[in-house]
Amino acid sequence: MAPPVRIASTVAATAIAVSVLVYYRFQSRRRVLSRHAQDLSVLRQKLPHDLSEWRAPGDTPECEAIWASLDPVLQDHGLEQWTHYDDQVLVSPQISYPLASGFAYALPNRGVDNGGGPGTARQLTWFQYINPVLRMARTKDGHDVAIRVIIVNNDGHEQLKILKKVAAGPSSLLSNNHTLPMLRVFEYEDITFGIFPRTAGCMYEAYGYWPKNSVGDVLDMILQALEGLAFLHDVGIAHRDADKSNFLVQWHPESLRTMSFPSELPMEARVSSHLKSIQGCHTVRSN
């Protein structure tokens, strides 16, 4: 057995070695984090300086370069961007299906794949954007979300204030509030991003396009849109862009294709003897 002094010396030497190793690893990690912060700081200088500048590129390589450069920022927040496919079309990671979120569905008669045609679940794996301030991403737990640039520098603070009032908090739980919920916000430098659920479609497609919606289907969408606008007016907010492309739907009812009535339609309103009842629910959301 070694003398006590030698044991104490051995223990002390081991402790010093461990301390040096821990200190080295801590310093190494701190240097990595410092380089990461520096890289992100340099990145900000390359990004648009206001919302108008962010919208300006449209569907161009410059627009894709902006979002591609933001990958490290989005990954830090658990978001994987959809891939740019062609023109203004984005596709989900590995063109895979998301988890159901309650905001995007396909009708059974359209099917899951069916050649990827309109209204199928496969169609939920791609998205065509109009505004470059909007991007699709997938969360770590498999849900698809829309990333919206809300604030850039001093531009957009009022919009965030409104969104916090109607798209988050207790008022977002009211049945006559058709605002798409804002799931969370995060910041990078002087830029604020909002995260929203990905929906299946919009009222722009409700008629004169691929969905086989009946007049009743379209009127139901319009009534819900008007109810949503009335809610905004009641709380002192004007939409100022109430275009049908800004009203979103979970799916298109397509009563002319399914030859059935939505279950929420009152019995006295079911005037056709050729249509049968079907279980379902359909909600219009304001973007």
From TrEMBL:
Record bears the keyword Methyltransferase: no
InterPro entries cross-referenced by the UniProt entry: Kinase-like_dom_sf, Prot_kinase_dom
Record-annotated membrane-spanning stretches: 6-26
Domain Protein kinase: 107-287
Source organism superkingdom: Eukaryota
Alphabetical list of PROSITE patterns matching this protein: PROTEIN_KINASE_DOM
Protein name in the entry: Protein kinase domain-containing protein
